[in-house]
Amino acid sequence: MDKPLAISMGEPAGIGPDLILQLYENRAKNELPPFCLFGNAEFLQARAKRLGLGLNIASTSVAEAGKTFADALPVVSIAGLISDSPGKASALTGKVVIGAIEQAVAAVQTGTCRALVTAPIHKAALYHAGFKHPGHTEFLAYLCAKGSKERRPVMMLAHNDLRVIPVTIHTPIKDVPSQLTRASIVETVTAAHYDLRLRFGIGQPRIAVAGLNPHAGESGNIGSEETDIIGPAIDQLRYAGINVEGPFPADTLFYPRHWRRYDVIIAMYHDQALIPIKTVAFEEAVNVTLGLPIVRTSPDHGTAFELAGTGRGSTRSLLAAIRMADELTRGRD
Ligand SMILES: NC(=O)c1ccc[n+]([C@@H]2O[C@H](COP(=O)([O-])OP(=O)(O)OC[C@H]3O[C@@H](n4cnc5c(N)ncnc54)[C@H](O)[C@@H]3O)[C@@H](O)[C@H]2O)c1
Ligand SMILES: N[C@H](C(=O)O)[C@H](O)COP(=O)(O)O
């Protein structure tokens, strides 16, 4: 039997815990693979009650999670200050939120769980709690490095055949040009190419690269990043045998007849990549981290405080994230 997935509970004031509980309540209908939830059992019990869900929750060890799953939601419970207060984030819950991610990652690294699925975190609350990483993606690279040199993590959002990757991730716009280097583009595309082949089974990925400036710089007249950095990076990647084209003007790259020619679009910054995919597939797209030794997926949405505790949030993106983590690792342990 396949090992369970590891799910981190995410921000307790947000919708992540609700969606996990709701999906578990209908686990047979949703055809959920067994998973182990890393969070806080008492809090989850209170949130389940608030949502009117009659499910059983069992504090357990990771090793027992697979066996428990059919009858009770297996939770590796992390102690800490936490209450059922939808919409009210607090830095005090940071210890549980961060601990859940750390322990879930450890369970995947040691091979007790197959892959990691993360529920959304509220980044600002964690920064107040002393969290030093911009988001999960960068934190996972840190945890996977275990003291050695960190690999560049790659954030891909995917929905069916549309896949997008920003080279710079959680970077303020003013810092994007200085962080866009030939090396950052080459490393991102190389990691994406490797994982699309290895994990997604795409034999020879077709990769398109966007420019940074309007009209991809109009031959160097509206910005020089395309001629000085992006173009040379593409040449280097093509020389290495990777099927990559660009830089293309970003405004027309997401016209369906254009993007459909490619397996992945490499964008230069966060919103250039995420606006198109969240516009066409917000309820179903999945955030998947590439470039790391573990598989991690996540829904594409955030904590949606206004919906927390109401039961009105859509479970579709989280379900898609669980399914993707399952498909990418099934039969591989
Ligand atoms: N994977 C993650 O950890 C992750 C991802 C994105 C955002 N965030 C964090 O979430 C917080 C809030 O971010 P935001 O407001 O930009 O984005 P958001 O995704 O939380 O909300 C944006 C809009 O979409 C709606 N929405 C979100 N999820 C929904 C769902 N499942 N069903 C129905 N409607 C839904 C919200 O009500 C809101 O109107 C921020 O702190 C951000 O950093 C975390
Ligand atoms: N950048 C993501 C988004 O907007 O959907 C989100 O912040 C999640 O990032 P991490 O997975 O790195 O937390």
From TrEMBL:
Cofactor binding mode and count: Binds 1 divalent metal cation per subunit. Can use ions such as Zn(2+), Mg(2+) or Co(2+).
Cofactors named for this entry: Zn(2+); Mg(2+); Co(2+)
Keywords tagged on the record: Cobalt, Cytoplasm, Magnesium, Metal-binding, NAD, NADP, Oxidoreductase, Pyridoxine biosynthesis, Zinc
Domain of life: Bacteria
Job description of the protein: Catalyzes the NAD(P)-dependent oxidation of 4-(phosphooxy)-L-threonine (HTP) into 2-amino-3-oxo-4-(phosphooxy)butyric acid which spontaneously decarboxylates to form 3-amino-2-oxopropyl phosphate (AHAP).
Entries under NCBIfam families matching the protein: pdxA, PRK05312.1
Note: The active site is located at the dimer interface.
UniProt-recorded name of the protein: 4-hydroxythreonine-4-phosphate dehydrogenase
Organism annotation: Devosia algicola
Organism classification: Bacteria, Pseudomonadati, Pseudomonadota, Alphaproteobacteria, Hyphomicrobiales
